[in-house]
Amino acid sequence: MSVDIVLPFALEGANIRGKLVRLGPAISAVLGGHDYPEAIAAKLGETIALTALLGASLKFDGKLILQTRTDGPLNMMVADFTTPGDLRGYARFDEAKSGFESGALLGTGHLALTIDQGAQMERYQGVVELASDDLAAAAHSYFERSEQIPTRIKLAAGPIITGVKHAWRAGGILIQHMPGSAEPDETGAEDWLRVCLLQDTVQAHELLDPQLAPEELLYRLFHEEGVRVFKPLPLRAHCGCSATQVRDMLARFSAAERAAMIRDDDSISVNCQFCSREYVFNAAEFD
C-alpha cells in the first residue's frame, strides 16, 4: 500500500516523530467532482493533504475540519477528515478578483482548525492568521501557539499524466519534536535543527512521484537518523452526505425560506458543495 495513506514514522536517533501522506485516487476523486482551475485545485489538494496529516492524530471517533477565509481570489476552502480515514473538501473562488492571474490566491485572513468529538462533546477550535499562500506556515503557527510542539510541514499537490489519463496527486510530510523533558538539552535542539534541514531538501516531485515508495522517500531523507515506519492508515474520498441529512436541514428552514427555494416544477433542489451531488425534493412534503 503506497497511495491514499498516512504513514507514521519515528526517527530512532532523535526524539522526533512524523507522518507522511500520499494521495492519488482519493484526491483525484475529490477534485474531479468540481471544475476548478488548476491553481485552485492544487491549493485545495495541499489543504486536503494537510487535513489528512492532522486528522490522522485523532485518538477518538470524530472529525477534524480545516477552513480558510481570506480576502484573496480563493476566499474560502473547507476540508475535513472523519475517522477512520474519510476525506472531502471544496473551494470557493472569484477569478475576476485582483491577484488571481499572478497566483496570489489567498491574500490575508485566517485558518481555523476545529476538532469535533460528536454531538455530546464540546468542539475545540484554534484560529491563526493566514498572511500568505503558505498553508504550512500557518499550521506551524497553530502548533506553536496551541500545542507548543515544534512542528514542520511540507506540502505539494499537482496534476500528473499517466498514459492518456489526467489525474491528481497530493502529498506532505510532518515532523514533530516530541517533549522529552521540561528543559530540552542542547543535543535535542541540534537533532531538531538537523532533521528540519533534511526535511527542507525534499522536493515537490518526490512527494508526488507514484514511482517513489513512501518508505523509500523516508529512507532517502532520514536514513542516518534511524527511520522506522509503522502501520499505514488508509484514506479514501468519502462525502457522507445523504438525502435524509439534506431533508432534515430543509425542514429546519421556515416556510417562507423554503418558499423562496421552490422551482417552477414545485421542487426544491440542493447541491452538496463537497461532492456536487444534487438532491431534489417535492416541496409539498415539507407542508
If you had to describe this structure to a student in words, what would you say it looks like?
This protein is of the alpha+beta class and 287 residues long. The protein has two domains: 5-237, Hsp33 domain; 243-286, HSP33 redox switch-like (CBS domain Like). The chain has eight helices and 14 strands. A hairpin with a 6-residue loop joins strand 13 (267-271) and strand 14. The N and C termini lie far apart (51 Å).
Total number of strands: 14
Helices, by number, come to 8
Please give the domain count.
2
What is the top-level CATH class of the largest domain? Alpha Beta
Q: How large, in whole angstroms, is the Cα Rg? A: 21 Å
| Percent in strands | 25-35%
At the fold tier of CATH, the topology name of the largest domain is Hsp33 domain
- Helix percentage: 25-40%
Report the CATH superfamily of the largest domain: Hsp33 domain
Largest beta-sheet details: 6 strands, antiparallel
